[in-house]
Amino acid sequence: MKTAKILRFQSPHLPEKDRSPWLRSTSAIFLFVLAGQILLHVSLLKLPYFWDEAGYYIPAARDLLLTGSLIPSSTLTNAHPPLVMAWLALWWKVFGFHPATTRMAMLVIASFAATGLFRLAKQVANWQVAAAAVVCTALYPVFFAQSPMAHLDMAVACFTLWGLSYYLRDRVLHTAFFFSLAALSKETAIIAPLALIFWELVGFAWKWRTDNHKFWLFAPSVCRIIWLALPVLPLAAWFAWHYHRTGFVFGNPEFFQYNLGGTLHPVRFLAALAIRAWQLLGYMNMFVLVVATWLAMGRPPLKLSRGDKPTNGSGAVQRGRIAVPVQLVFVVLILAYAVAVSILGGAVLARYLLPVYPLIILMGVSTVWRRIPWWPAFLGVVCAAFLLALVTDPPYRAAPEDNLGWAKFVRVHQQAAQVIEKRFSSGPILTAWPASDELTKPFLGYVSKPVPVMRIENFSAQQMLAVRNTPLSFEAALVFSTKYEPLSGYFIRLSRWDDFLARYFDYHRDLPPDVIAGMLGGRIVWSNRIGGQWAAVITFDRPVNAMNLHAD
């Protein structure tokens, strides 16, 4: 029966004295966190849109604002549920269409996520652990960078944290409500309730074995399973509506093939799972917290005096840990996300793990608090490591959206777009996505009027060789870094790794701008580099051919 108690989590309920001021205290925490978020991100609020923001989410939300249609018309639909796009459209309707409005709308979601984390952490630990976990999470580069960005994963993290908090309180209606909001933010959010259903079934099977098959003892688990399954219904309704309107259930065929059809190879899955393990435990200096947690585990728990905590009559007690059943729930969710997003998604982006990063940080912070006397100093080192990873370029490949590299990318592209608009506005301009959208869609914030472009896939050697011998002409070329490559080389470089990434993860290496200019017979008239992000404008003294390009 002792093992059964571990497998079956007994949902704790807050004492009545903690419920009465709940709304007031939660609102105060939210406003405090929001003020901090705005202060920390103030320099980013007016930046134009980056990468997938410009490619899908902003055009889709703008279509909703202008036409009222949940199915975008200015970009190919990828079947993502519309809740976040509707949230952005609402803010634009009230406050005006501007990047700052978008950033503020997303910071509200990020702040609500941090508030949910505080509530969850205070519930399973205490206010000290809760406050420290929120600070560490807010400063973790992936969370910080994604907070003002118009992506879906922060909303998933937000509603998942709130749903998990209510799940641990055994508040089934609230649990189903927040997990449904998460599912309507992004389809992958359904991973969390399905993982919890799996955990309930494990506990159900164990209790059936150990409790003499007394079915009536399992009614609470059955009830929780039914409520956890409810978020499937609004998601299924959305996909049915999408199919009715477009003829596709999971988005256009190219999107489906890239994000699922091409990800099922077992070698690719194992490689993606290894990348996910690195992203969870080492990426962007997360290893500092992991090492601190590991060092703390080698020490005995600290004691609390009677004045620090109620001790039930004893002179001193050990600092409490997060209950084992709760930690097992966290581990189940982390593993479920790691496995699921290793299969779903052509790009192995760290932001897909946003719903579980706070759980890892919470468990690490709780362990350090419980066992290290100078725990604030240890966590101060962790926060410093996170800040270092946030503002500097890592010695390994990373997506710019995982730290402030995205801001460097946007600022370089702003400068390049100004050069193009001033000197080559008649076009056409040879470039690749997302610069092709930046030049042709003024509402993205880069140009004041559209500039004709001829779009290529990337700036690899193979693509440049294809461009060199084609029959159409273009006035200039805007070339830029489509992948972050460390300036000083790699900390670890394995042989044939690039070929492996190219085969299974669509990797390519961009040529430097001077090499591109030499291959195409042009000269660089402007270039700039900020950290690992660069862009250059190349002009040509004679017409350059361009066949088989996408004219926009």
Would you write up a description of this structure?
With 552 residues, the protein is of the alpha/beta class. The protein has two domains: 21-212 and 222-400, no CATH class; 404-551, no CATH class. It has 24 helices and eight strands. The chain has helices spanning 2-7, 16-19, 22-41, 52-67, 83-95, 99-124, 127-139, 141-146, 153-168, 172-185, 191-210, 219-229, 232-246, 253-261, 266-281, 286-297, 324-343, 357-371, 375-391, 405-423, 435-440, 461-468, 497-505, 513-520, and strands at 303-305, 316-318, 429-432, 453-456, 474-480, 522-530, 533-544, 550-551. The strands form two sheets. The protein has a six-stranded mixed sheet, sandwiched between helices. Helix 21 links the parallel strand 3 (429-432) and strand 4. Helix 9 runs antiparallel to helix 10 (172-185) and helix 18 packs antiparallel against helix 19. The chain starts with a helix and ends with a strand. Mean pLDDT is 87; it is low at 1-18 and 310-315.
